[in-house]
Automatic annotation (TrEMBL):
Pfam families in the cross-refs: Hydrolase
Lineage of origin: Eukaryota, Fungi, Dikarya, Ascomycota, Pezizomycotina
Superkingdom in the source lineage: Eukaryota
InterPro entries with a match to the protein in the record: ACAD10-like (IPR052898), HAD-like_sf (IPR036412), HAD_sf (IPR023214), PGP-like_dom2 (IPR023198)
Protein name: Epoxide hydrolase
Length: 253
């Protein structure tokens, strides 16, 4: 990617990229409660696109007690529990675990309030440079009215972006093609019809989301769990800017 021309637009996922990954909260919950690692994400993926989680991320259902009942039921489906264990040739799995879906959800949301220690400072430098257009494309949920997480403070990551495409507000979610096309149209409306897909670099932590972006000709950087520093180094190569904090090892430009 370093040999390609510099992009015009940098488009970021939020959770697991700009802020701490909610996947870490899922992993912590599984470890704490003796649930096999990967089961919760497996069950969510298996119910795509019609699980409670996906409906919430498209803004189709309210974030209320009924949602948590639906989410809990999804996570505790005996057929999914059996299917997960079949992958490891376990034909006699233990009983389906009791999962507190509401506690899990709010732990995920709380954890993803914390800025990523490498990407957040990089965003500050990118914004200050004025050299790149900054957009966000994120699967989101809408918090209940009056909830403290609705407040946008001066250090909120959302302040970095002139365009913020939120799945729950537009009724679409990644990795469906329609939300990428929507984001591309927003970018061209704001910054010019001459912006090509290959002028955009998209950062995400989920392979499926990046695969769809690539299929549209968008350049991509994957942010691996706990390894965001590597992604910032890739951004340095792409942008030609020094983005790591002083004292951090830098990529050769």
């Amino acid at each position: 990617m370093a040999s390609q021309s510099r992009p015009k637009v940098l488009m970021f996922d939020i959770g697991g990229v700009c802020v701490v990954s909610p996947f870490q909260a899922i992993l912590d919950y599984e470890v704490q409660h003796g649930i096999p690692k990967g089961y919760i994400n497996f069950s969510i993926r298996e119910l795509t696109p019609n699980g409670a989680w996906h409906k919430l991320e498209r803004g189709e259902i309210p974030n209320d007690a009924n949602y948590f009942r639906m989410f809990k039921a999804d996570l505790q489906r005996p057929d999914l529990w059996a299917k997960f264990h079949q992958k490891s040739n376990n034909s006699n799995p233990p009983p389906v675990p009791d999962i507190d879906a509401e506690t899990l959800y709010w732990t995920m949301m709380s954890m993803s309030r914390s800025p990523d220690p490498y990407m957040y400072p990089a965003l500050k430098k990118l914004k200050a440079s004025g050299q790149y257009k900054l957009a966000a494309l994120s699967n989101t949920t809408i918090f209940p009215e009056g909830h403290e997480f609705n407040k946008i403070g001066p250090d909120d990551v959302r302040n970095f972006f002139e365009i913020f495409v939120s799945s729950a507000h537009v009724g679409m979610r990644k990795p469906n093609r329609d939300i990428y096309e929507y984001a591309l149209e927003q970018i061209r409306q704001k910054w010019g019809r001459d912006i090509r897909n290959e002028d955009i670099v998209f950062l995400d932590d989920i392979g499926e989301n990046l695969k769809m972006a690539k299929s549209l000709g968008i350049r991509t950087i994957r942010v691996l769990l706990g390894r965001s520093q590597e992604a910032v180094k890739e951004l340095e190569k792409v942008t030609g800017l020094s983005l790591l904090e002083d004292g951090e090892p830098r990529a050769r430009l």
